[in-house]
Design brief:
Layout: H1 5-21, H2 26-33, H3 37-44, H4 52-62, H5 66-69
Helix pairs in contact: 2-3
């Protein structure tokens, strides 16, 4: 099952917001998350589905819970 585009875009915006709040470039974020920079960019643009393992890793990188990572990303409303 593919994640709806609106959910992916909202999650990408949330990830970008968290990254920028910490003053990290996309490259710094990608290094901290052990992601490719182009993958990190495509996630922020909402172009990619993300595995749960990667989401857990990103929450850890940001120092937040998984539920905090999803805060405000509900695309079904």
């Amino acid at each position: 099952m593919q994640v709806p585009a609106k959910v992916r875009k909202n999650l990408g915006k949330r990830i970008r917001q968290l990254r920028e709040k910490r003053g990290w470039s996309q490259e710094e974020f990608a290094l901290k998350g052990k992601l490719g920079r182009s993958f990190a960019g495509s996630v922020e643009r909402g172009e990619r589905d993300i595995r749960i393992q990667t989401l857990c890793k990103l929450a850890d990188v940001f120092g937040i819970t998984l539920s905090e990572l999803f805060k405000g990303t509900d695309g079904y409303k």
